[in-house]
Amino acid sequence: MQSKKTRTMKRLTSLLLAMMFVAAGFAQQPQKDVLIFQKPGFSYYYDVIMKSLNDYYKKQEVKKPHKYPKVDMSKYDLPNKKKLYKYAWHNPPISQGNAGTCWDFSTTSFLESEIYRQTGKKVKLSEMYTAYWEYVEKAKEFVRTRGKSLFDEGSESNAVTRIYKKYGIVPESVYPGKPKDMPFYDHSKMVAEMKAFLKGVKDNNLWNEKFVLEGIREILNKYMGVPPTKFTVDGKEYTPKTYLTDYLKLNPDDYVDIMSLKQFPYWTQQEYPVPDNWWHSHDYYNVPLDAFMQILHYAVKHGYTVCIGGDVSEPGFDRNTQCAIVPTFDIPPQYIDENARQFRFSNGTTTDDHGMHLVGWTNYKGQMWYLVKDSGSGSRNNDPKAPEFGYYFFREDYIKLKIMDFMVHKDAIPKDIRKKMGL
């Protein structure tokens, strides 16, 4: 039998070990993030884009917004340097200016990377050629639905592949889509004019498609120019369609759109229920969140890039550090799952704001981070000569909670998941 002294020592030892485990448990708890109210400082959108456009139009400067809530990352150790990431080839970031065409810029960049991956050709394609024909398609649907279909600037990634299939594509050099002396793209006047024209159509029941499309194209031609039907590349003449098939050798049908929403059955194709899916595409493969993340991880680690879309109007989306995280005052990372994701989408706190091009990844101190190329202004609040100009850095939890869909080449999907998707 053990002596009373021995039993007492064992109890003390057990108590000390228990206290050590409790202390270790507290030490492993995630750091609590702090909410602050940020005063607006330098803003690439207001101080560069809008200032340049106001000078161009000879208008007065637009006022900056007031302070806004955000997570304080000022003392965090963040992987916000491009050199820390492994990334696939992509063209340098370019600005979409004051045009609501992130869907177009991000997907065009993605497809440029795909063309390089498959052919070794470095090309710069025209975003505005795609935007031009997308406006035409929107006008057609506006007529067909007697004014019920949304006519605005936004759209989705699979609009680009849809336009490529129907109208082809051209190099940016043959169709820049704006006057040479205009410093940035600006569709505000053009869109306002088209909306006013369509309002007149609806108010007067002028539902003649030929008449409407002639009116829309007249406005587009005035602001963007007439799209080319023939052009020369490397000494050979192409049409937009033969340039796509014969020179770029790009097959739009090779690309699939993935989403993860609990409101729909998994492993089925569904409509992505957001306004920018104005043509109600049901081509989205709805998969469980684990599969959603697995596809994305597999793709970037095997040399593919991904075109992503989701919410960027968040306190954890910091335009000073260019980093995006989910703060603990929103939800601790260990609780992010398909329920938290669906809850925020259903109550409107997750919205379909912005399209971007995910081009690389790194494992930084045990956490996955992603390098994201961007055409918006928030990624440009730094030195234009810095390698990070035009990029964001997304932590894995932000992707998991706030990125709602992505486009990827079907070969970038693991075989077991492709089989479940019926691909």
Concise overview:
The chain has 423 residues and is of the alpha+beta class.
Description:
It is a single chain. With 423 residues, the chain is an alpha+beta fold. It has 12 helices and 15 strands. Helix 4 packs antiparallel against helix 7 and helix 6 (188-203) runs antiparallel to helix 7. The model is unreliable at 1-28 (pLDDT under 50).
Order of helices and strands: HEHEEHHHHHEEHEEEHEEEHEEEHEH
Anisotropy-based shape: globular
Strand content: 15-25%
CATH top level is Alpha Beta
- The total of helices stands at 12
CATH topology: Cathepsin B, Chain A
Estimate the helix proportion, in percent.
25-40%
At CATH level 2, the architecture is: Alpha-Beta Complex
Number of domains: 1
- Which secondary-structure class do the elements indicate? alpha+beta
Which superfamily, in CATH terms, is the homologous superfamily? Answer: Cysteine proteinases
Please compute the radius of gyration using only Cα atoms: 25 Å
Count all strands and give the number.
15
Mean pLDDT: 92
Poorly predicted runs of 5 or more residues: 1-28
End-to-end CA span: 69 Å
List the topology elements.
Blueprint (H helix, E strand, L loop, with lengths): L3 H24 L7 E4 L5 H14 L10 E4 L14 E2 L14 H18 L7 H18 L12 H11 L20 H16 L5 H16 L6 E3 L2 E3 L1 H9 L6 E5 L8 E3 L13 E3 L2 H13 L4 E5 L6 E2 L4 E2 L13 H9 L7 E11 L2 E7 L17 E5 H7 E7 L5 H7 L2
Parallel strand pairs: 6-8, 11-14
Antiparallel strand pairs: 1-2, 3-12, 4-5, 6-15, 7-8, 9-12, 9-15, 10-11, 12-13, 13-14
Helix pairs in contact: 3-5, 4-7, 6-7
